[in-house]
Amino acid sequence: MAKEKRVEQITDMEVDFAQWYTDICRKAELVEYASVKGFTILRPYGYAIWENMQRIMDAEFKKTGHENVAMPVLIPESLLKKEGELVNGFAPEVAWVTQGGSEELEERLAFRPTSETMFCDHWSRVLHSYRELPMLYNQWCSVIRWEKTTRPFLRSREFWWQEGHTIHETAEEAQAETEQQLNCYADFFENVLAIPVVRGRKTDKEKFAGAEATYTVECLMKDHKALQGATSHYFGDKFSRAYDVTFTGRDNSWGSTTRMIGAVIMAHGDNSGLVLPPRIAPIQVVVVPVAMHKEGVLDKARELEAALKAAGVRVTLDDSDNSLGWKCAQYEMKGVPLRVELGPRDIENGVCVAVRRDSGEKTTVPLAELTQRVPELLDAVQKGLYEKAKLNLEEHIFAAHSIEEARALQEEHGGFIKTMWCGELACETAMKEQAGMSSRCLPFEQEQLDTVCACCGKPAKQMIYWGVAY
Amino acid sequence: MAKEKRVEQITDMEVDFAQWYTDICRKAELVEYASVKGFTILRPYGYAIWENMQRIMDAEFKKTGHENVAMPVLIPESLLKKEGELVNGFAPEVAWVTQGGSEELEERLAFRPTSETMFCDHWSRVLHSYRELPMLYNQWCSVIRWEKTTRPFLRSREFWWQEGHTIHETAEEAQAETEQQLNCYADFFENVLAIPVVRGRKTDKEKFAGAEATYTVECLMKDHKALQGATSHYFGDKFSRAYDVTFTGRDNSWGSTTRMIGAVIMAHGDNSGLVLPPRIAPIQVVVVPVAMHKEGVLDKARELEAALKAAGVRVTLDDSDNSLGWKCAQYEMKGVPLRVELGPRDIENGVCVAVRRDSGEKTTVPLAELTQRVPELLDAVQKGLYEKAKLNLEEHIFAAHSIEEARALQEEHGGFIKTMWCGELACETAMKEQAGMSSRCLPFEQEQLDTVCACCGKPAKQMIYWGVAY
Fold it and tell me: Which residues fall within 8 angstroms of residue A15, CB to CB, at 6 or more apart?
């Protein structure tokens, strides 16, 4: 028999949120550090979450006519440099290949930090006529950005992502695509990750290098810091001009990354560990037998597992020799949405006990109703997580009318601070310097909080959201 | 209206097989060359074939308990060098990252040519006990090998693959895994790609750098050259010793690549273009309306498309203004397994005409039976391709009893030449130098062709297959 395993402990989020986060990443076996500085390994459980995210997003992309492709991972320096703003934005973070086998390369090659240049170069070679438009492409791959400080999922030198790249005949079509994909991300965050978002446009200061406009979905973590969820960029005709596409198309790109796993941890996790929305959980239900060695218990537990599997639930049975306490703690750490306990007395009574990870709520479920009730309970967890996160967001949006007030609100409550803004970079810089907040977005849903800019007192153009961001 | 498009022409395979191959790669829109020498782009149609292959293989891997992970793409030189044979095997082909952002790296980093080193290093950090074994991991990614000459799918500097890596407690378990995965590949080739294979073991000369044993599935192309389909390696305890795993585990790795798309082209293609096995075809059926602008034709064609889609068939309707001739040629080039033609007279008679891509055979199908008959016809194409490829294989295996005879048979017929072999490297080298053939494998199904080695006349140990390989 295995010796009693120690229940893993993590730091409380109220004590040290950053350490709590790292503890979950490690103890839930999502990632491990690699022997290369700043790089991480996605372990099976972390990767399975990413696979579920990929599967759902990929199907959505395909519904709207997008096709997957694979572009080379290395980009010649001269090609990368054709669009000046892009390369200026990424140059300090590029990893360079300078040797191939024994040969010193004549021109160094960039490990892609993003692939706009490759897509445009490809289009310049294969496109002959407007009739072939639009081209709606997507790529799942990893990219490298040589960050100085790194944190699992949130900022690492290599990360996994999808990058959509499309080219259209007219500006209107291209902008419609940018918007469609932003909404696709927003729906994914809200309906799948159970994280409510604020949709809006980035300021010129915060937009993507080379983009004419960047749109974003912004979300709020449990420590009331902001996190940029995913972005969609409109480039106008800049790239197709720079890369000599034979006519002037309008390009977009849009991307989302493994950072979304970080968002899930910080939006839903608690002091017992990870809490996963059922729709992306690798294990949705764990069956834990109580007094497992009593006659009939394990057989009945296997029956439940098989019935749930047949009903399309991602279920696992833990029939290991570990203690009941260890098992409960372990699956809580891993964020499994529902634990089904089954002991000799339950069997006598023809029931089992379902325990929700999000609320701890216990429900006695007649065995005959299990395959109907479990999906309902999973839906309830999915909705419960969203509602809780929505409350956290709504309770942490504060209106301010001066930098000083904004600073004080941020210090006291965190969250998003909304103010009116004149549109000037100087005011954005002032907010950063005096209140420590960057602009998060110009929300699509505007409000008239005031007539003047909170920073300079000149006439205001729009409402803007500020925050301390990951 | 679009002007009449020119039907794309390709070189006949009998005239120039290599050019025929390249023509298909380009004209069927599978790949395009990138602006980086030796690198290719997988275009949507090529990538969709790869996605189908991935989906089917991934499900098989998971059935036997394998889990996906993601390892860093860059490997420190010192880590790569820990297992001497491996690095000696790959060093001449490694692409090196020497700069990260503005910083010159202290130690250069290899773009992974394969990831044994990363997996073993990871295990040395996370494994504490035999009890945690086996670990059954797989990774889908791209790798770089700095080849001098390249050809789409067959040999390119970057290619896409899966690499399985497993660690076990005992040599027996590890060897069982190597064998299981080789059989998994063999089944995939035969049942999905419709390509019959010869299973066997590689000689020491041809085995993977650092492996104790390499197993392979070998197949035969239409030009009667051999192609190594996929390989499975047993490492014994070499890696776990080299990488300081806290106890001595036994490792395996096994891999298959986008080269399989090249195998499909050369195993099934013809002078009209690509021929795809239905199980991996992105489009299984194309519905082509005849006299499309006659009343009712397009409506009926849309009805057929919807009915087939509902029946789970990957179907598309071409309602473009291109001519019927162009459409037929285009979908033949793209290897679509079944074309369904439907004109006004067919509609009157309540039928349509199904044309098989593999044989050109036409079948008149009552519309009421379409959703039942199409899957049957697709099965027939799948089987037909396999049978044809099997005949090609069986008719191109020749027994020889001397190097001279082997050379003559290869020159006249191509294919696999089987001989007895003493097991000595000198004889393998002699066959290469005098008959231009490398050893392909020592087949699991052995025959006693002779008592002595065909090369040196000394007592023979085993039967061996020779061939000219891609």
Answer: none
A261-271 CB burial, b ≥16 within 10 A, e <16: bbbbbbbbbbe
Q: Closest Cα of chain B to A412: distance in Å?
A: 38
What is each CA distance from B379 to A464, B340, B370, B376, B392, in whole angstroms? 60, 16, 14, 5, 20
DSSP 8-state code for residue B312: T
The answer to whether B108 faces chain A, any CB pair under 8 Å, is yes
Global pTM exceeds 0.80 = yes
Within an 8 Å CB–CB cutoff, is residue B56 touching chain A?
Answer: no
Kindly determine whether residue B34 and residue A71, on different chains, have CB atoms separated by under 8 Å. Answer: yes
pLDDT, tens digit (0-9, with 9 covering 90-100), for A41-59 = 999 999 999 999 999 999 9
Put simply, the chain B residues between 409 and 448 with a CB less than 8 A from any chain A CB are: none
Task: Name the residue among B409, B182, B427, B232 with its Cα closest to residue B418.
Answer: B409
Torsion on CA atoms B333, B334, B336, B340, rounded to nearest 10? -60
ipTM computed for the complex? 0.95
Q: By 3-state DSSP, what share of chain A in percent is helix, strand and coil, each rounded to 5?
A: 40, 30, 35
- Across the interface, whether the CB atoms of B75 and A144 are under 8 A apart is answered no
Which letter does DSSP use for residue B190 in this model?
Answer: I
Query: How wide is the angle at C-alpha A159 spanned by C-alphas B166 and B36, nearest 5°?
Result: 95
Measure the CA dihedral A338/A339/A345/A351, to 10°.
Answer: 20
Is residue A219 within 8 Å of A460, Cβ to Cβ?
no
> What are the distances in angstroms from CA B14 to CA A40, A358, B21, B227?
51, 67, 11, 19
Residue A51 forms contact with B (CB below 8 Å): yes
Please state, as a whole number, how many other Cβ atoms lie within 10 Å of the Cβ of residue B440.
27
* B34 lies within 8 A of chain A by CB: yes
The candidate with the shortest Cα–Cα distance to B111, out of A38, A100, A146, is A100
Cα–Cα dist A396/A313, whole Å: 35
A306, A256 contact by CB (below 8 A):
no
B48 to A40: CB separation less than 8 angstroms, yes or no = no
> What residue ranges in B173-236 does DSSP mark as E strands?
198-201, 213-220, 226-236
Per the CB < 8 Å rule, is B95 touching A74? yes
CB B123 within 8 A of CB B153: no
- Measured CA to CA, the distance from residue B461 to residue B470 in angstroms comes to 27
- B48 and A67 within 8 Å at the Cβ level: the answer is yes
- Per residue in B377-430, pLDDT (tens digit) is 999 999 999 999 999 999 999 999 999 999 999 999 999 999 999 999 999 999
d(CA A100, CA B148) in angstroms, rounded, equals 10
Contact by Cβ (8 Å): A53, A192: yes
Query: CB of B45 within 8 A of CB of B200?
Result: no
Amino acid at A446: Q
The token duo for B448 is: 């006693």
